[in-house]
Design brief:
Chain lengths: ~110, ~120
C-alpha cells in the first residue's frame, strides 16, 4: 500500500480536461509544499511535470497544472492529447522516517 | 545538459548482493543529492534512499535500512547503490535521479537515469 493515495485510472477524450488527485496526511502533502508529479510512458524513465505543488519545469506544456488543498494535491491536464496517455505519480517529502513517499500511480487513458 | 548514465542489467542469485552505478555529467555533481528509486514489474515507484555527495551523508527509507548502502565518488561524479540479501521481490528496475533539495529536505527529482533492471532468480 502506497503512502499517498491516487486513483488507479482516469480517462478522457482528446481536448477534455482531467484531474488526478493525490491524498496524503499532514505529515506529507498537507504539511509541506514539496509535492511533485511525474509522467511515465511504458518502458521509459519518469519525467518531472510539476514541482513544489504548482511549478512547471522549463519545456513542460502549460496544459499541465498543479494545486493543493489541505492533504490533497491535484494534477490537471487540459486539452488532452494522445501523447498524454501515460502513468502519473505524485510524490512528497514526509516528516516520517520514510523521508519521501510516492503515490501508487494513475493510468491515464485518452479515449 | 544533465545526463545520468547507469550500469547495465544484472541477474543475481537470492542472498547475493548487487551494486548499480550512476555516472553524472553536464551539471555540478556535488551541488545536488542523488536519489535511488525502484520500480517492480507492473508496480509503482518506491524511494530507497539518497546520497548528498558534498556532505557524504546518506539517508535511507526505513524499509531498506540495513540492506542498502548508497555512496558517491566525487572525483568521478558517480553514485552507487548496493543492495544486499537479495530476494525475488527485489526484482525491479532501479533508477538514479538528481534530487533538488531545500535545506537538506527533498523537493523533487529533475533528471533520471535510464534505469537498470536487476533480476533476482535462482
Amino acid at each position: 500500500q502506497s503512502a499517498l493515495t491516487q486513483p488507479a485510472s482516469v480517462s478522457g477524450s482528446p481536448g477534455q480536461s482531467i484531474t488526478i488527485s493525490c491524498t496524503g496526511t499532514s505529515s506529507d502533502v498537507g504539511g509541506y509544499n514539496y509535492v511533485s508529479w511525474y509522467q511515465q510512458h511504458p518502458g521509459k524513465a519518469p519525467k518531472l511535470m510539476i514541482y513544489d505543488v504548482s511549478n512547471r519545469p522549463s519545456g513542460v506544456s502549460n496544459r499541465f497544472s498543479g494545486s493543493k488543498s489541505g492533504n490533497t494535491a491535484s494534477l490537471t491536464i487540459s486539452g488532452l492529447q494522445a501523447e498524454d496517455e501515460a502513468d502519473y505519480y505524485c510524490s512528497s517529502y514526509t516528516s516520517s522516517s520514510t523521508f519521501v513517499v510516492f503515490g501508487g500511480g494513475t493510468k491515464l487513458t485518452v479515449l | 545538459q544533465v545526463q545520468l548514465v547507469q550500469s547495465g542489467a544484472e541477474v543475481k542469485k537470492p542472498g547475493s548482493s548487487v551494486k548499480v552505478s550512476c555516472k553524472a555529467s553536464g551539471g555540478t555533481f556535488s551541488s545536488y543529492a542523488i536519489s535511488w528509486v525502484r520500480q517492480a514489474p507492473g508496480q509503482g515507484l518506491e524511494w530507497m534512499g539518497r546520497i548528498i555527495p558534498i556532505l557524504g551523508i546518506a539517508n535511507y527509507a526505513q524499509k531498506f535500512q540495513g540492506r542498502v548502502t548508497i555512496t558517491a565518488d566525487k572525483s568521478t561524479s558517480t553514485a552507487y547503490m548496493e543492495l544486499s540479501s537479495l530476494r525475488s521481490e527485489d526484482t525491479a528496475v532501479y533508477y538514479c535521479a538528481r534530487e533538488v533539495m531545500q535545506q537538506l529536505v527533498w523537493r523533487f527529482v529533475d533528471y533520471w537515469g535510464q534505469g537498470t533492471l536487476v533480476t533476482v532468480s535462482s
